[in-house]
Structure formats: C-alpha cells, structure tokens
Design goal:
With 146 residues, the chain is mainly alpha-helical. It is 71% helix and 4% strand.
Length: 146
Amino acid sequence: MASSDEKKRRNFVLVPLVGVYLLSMLITLSHLGDSFPFMGKLYSGDAGEELIFASSVISLYLIVGILKRQRLTLWLLIAYNFLESMNGLSNLLLLPVQQITTASGAIVPDYHYRVNAFSVFVLFLLLNLFLYFNRDRFDNKSIYLW
C-alpha cells in the first residue's frame, strides 16, 4: 500500500505543469482576433487566428499527454518549449517593440516589454530543465492518448 501512495505523490509533481500549460492555452485563446507575432513576423486576420487556434490545439494535446504521463509528450513538450523560446527571442530581436504594443493595444514601455520577453524565454528554458529531470515520471510508452 505504501508504494501505491508514493506513486500517487510522485504523479502530483506533474499537476503544476498541467496548470502552466492550461494557463498558457487560455492566454493564447484570449488573444483570438488580435495580431499574433510568430518567428519575427506579425500575423493578423485569418492567418493570426489560425496560428492562435493551432497553438491552442497543440497545448490541449500536450495537457492531455501530461495527464496520461505519455513518454512521447515529454519530448514534444521539450520541442514545444524550445520553439516557443526561439519564437519569443526572434520576436524580440526582429520586431520593433512599438509595432507589437500597437498591435496588441497595450501601452507598455520598451524596457518592460523586453524584460517580459526575456523572462518568458528563461521560463521556457527552466521548464525544459524541469521536464528533463522529471522524465522518469512519464512512464506511459504508448504513442496514442487513448
């Protein structure tokens, strides 16, 4: 019985991870209809909405994969975090800050935007470290979510 309790406690480590990706998905969905910066370009209209929808569907898949403790999801999460961190870094370097803040309708000083973008970059790197050191918790080797 003790091993069952220990296994349940071990799996609770992944609960905050689900919360992070659920919050990320909800924030992404809340920007539906706005311009979407991706890899140094600002997409608006249908292209922006399609990118937001695709990002939300990918996040939903990752959330379900975390809940199922799927091994494939672990590597997809690491790839997704790497892509998102490179996206943020490329947007920071290639897009003028005023263009992003004007498109989003927010009045944010350049310095605050740059600090925020760099913080998100560091967050994704830390998430990858967390995932790598907790990779043994993803013990479901099935490639299917059902």
